[in-house]
Amino acid sequence: MIWECVEIFKRELEKNSDKFVLDNYIPKDGTYFIIKIEKDNWEMMEPIDITYDKKQERVEGEMNVYYEKVCFLDYYSKLIDMDKALDRAKKIHSNNYLSFFVKKENLFNGALTVDIIKKYYDVFRNLNTKYGRSPESKKLYEETEKLCGQIDIDLINSIEEWINTHIFKILKPSKEKDYLKLFFVFPDWNKTKQLFIQEGTRYFIPNIYNNNKYNTDGHDGKILGLPNNNLQMNGKKPYLGNMSRKNKAPFLLDREQVLLQSKFYDYLEGFAAKGKYDVYFDIEKNKIRAYKSKEYPSSGFYGYYIRIKKGKEVEIQNVDVVVYYNPNLRPAFLYKQILEVKESQNYGSITKRKDLENLINEVFFNKGLMANYFTEAKDIPKNDPIVFREIVEVRERLFAWFYKNTDMDISTVLIASAWELIKNSFKKGNWTKTKHQLNLKWSLEDYFNSNQKKEILMNEIEKNMFRYMKEQDWDFKNDEEYYFGVGQMASFLIGKSRSAKKPMSFINIYLSAGNDQVIKEQLRTLFQKYSYDISYTDWRVKSLFSHLMLYRPNGKVNKEMIIAGATASNVIYKKEEED
Residue 359's Cα: distance from chain center in Å? Predict the structure, then answer.
């Protein structure tokens, strides 16, 4: 699927050339100098300080007139990764003799020395030696030299001399860990561009493959090799190899394909630097869009989805096909206040997928779901073990539903998780939260199953229960009413406790009861304990309690109705005018 995404990228690249990648490119934080190469006097231009401000989401320094040129020069001078640095001491991080990248702190702590600088430029003076250590590397560099031509030794020597004279004097002593980057350019910008592309290519092609020992000749004479992006083949990861053939590389690409893939990853890295980790590839419109966490595409599309992560290099964490994504809910979701709650909540119609995600995140997961879709489990806060467990259990499927419109029987997964979280809130005595969660669970059940109407059921139960409190001759119509009544009675009796902290363990007993007999025994115990505070004329209490003792349910213990009854407005206290 990645190559399908690369193909969409390729079409955009062909229309816009490398500018398509460079417009998304952000240089690393640091101070940048352009040095103009003149015959008699080399001129150092004013420095450009570049910093990406994550809070403001903008690049400090991008308004400088030379910013676009710096992006171009930096892009063609960067290393593929530190394992492919030309400086064996890994203190100089540029890839060609026209640029010089060093961490500022290394200028003053003794890490960068004249000897290291000499060895860095010696590499360019002896590239045939560097790439002649194996037949595969030698052949690849010979092709590169044909493409790029001979290297300019005199210019290398002149730049090295300038560096030795000035490098330790450019900045004041500092312990800053960002970069000092120097670019040596000609007055003619077109000449400079061609030379930087040429010398960048001189580095990229021999180093573009993961390991040149896997290089082989294709049937058309092209060199094939293992790409370097998002894959490592080394002694620590032998399982990545294809052990069924002589060349153990899992797959091989020619130079054009690898360079294209490399630019694709560079493009993605620009998104990752901005915190845009969700990337969508629209097949119909041939467009690529990236979004930050909690952001969604604004219109429907079908294509591909990639989740990226910023590390030492950009990593692809997830790839999937999006059959059809719609940011709008069809039909709209209705969050119904089935159980009355005094505290405000966003009840009502929800038409946007992102708004439903926010609601579920807040009501069920204490706002911990959306922040931890891709967090390592060990790093997710464990303030509430049950919430932690449910986040880890359902986050992958919920993310797929919200961001890729992938169903995967989401109703079963979400409703089961919601029930665990409802029990958790209830056992902790957070009854207001429990009611919000029950309302959301029932609203979701009604949404996923249009034939099921919990709102009608609960209205009927509460209406009947209130009517029963005014009548002498009545009986529970069904098990739902009975278990709702159990919750009402248990809540009423616990309310009689004079303890500052109500004994929630009494309610929890009902949730762990395996049969109705246990429930009746617990109700008798509670009734006897608080009977001293129940008046003989309290006929509502006596009526409800006696009917609970006489009723014989048919099915399993309905724990959901017990919780609903315990948290709902108690019919024993309701006044007649509330009918």
Answer: 18
CA distance 125 to 127: 6
0.85 exceeded by pTM: no
Please check whether residue 492 is in contact with residue 570, taking contact to mean a CB–CB distance below 8 angstroms.
yes
Q: What is the Cα gyration radius of the chain? A: 34
With 0-12 CB in 10 A as exposed, 13-18 as middle and 19+ as buried, what is 221?
exposed
Q: How is 468-517 classified by DSSP, letter by letter?
A: HTT-SS---SSHHHHHHHHHHHHHHHHTT---SS--THHHHHHHH-SSHH
pLDDT, tens digit (0-9, with 9 covering 90-100), for 514-567? 899 999 998 999 899 888 888 766 888 989 999 999 999 998 999 999 999 999
Instruction: State which of 280-294, 309-323, 382-396 shows the largest mean pLDDT.
Output: 382-396
What phi and psi values does residue 340 have, to the nearest 5 degrees?
A: -65, 130
In tens, the pLDDT along 19-42 reads 999 999 999 999 999 999 988 789
| CB 554 within 8 Å of CB 474 | no
| b/e sequence 402-417, b meaning 16+ C-beta within 10 Å | bbbbbeeebeebbeeb
Closest C-alpha among 157, 138, 172, 155 to residue 31: 172
Contacts of the segment 119-126: beta carbons below 8 A, 24+ positions apart: 119/87, 119/88, 119/89, 120/86, 120/87, 120/92, 121/97, 121/156, 121/157, 121/159, 121/160, 123/86, 123/87, 124/86, 124/96, 124/97, 124/151, 124/156, 125/151, 125/153, 125/156
CA distance 282 to 304: 7
Decide the pairing of beta strands 30-36 and 179-185.
parallel
- More confident site: 535 or 182: 182
Structural contact between residues 68 and 44, judged by C-beta atoms closer than 8 angstroms = no
Amino acid at 155: L
d(CA 314, CA 271): 9
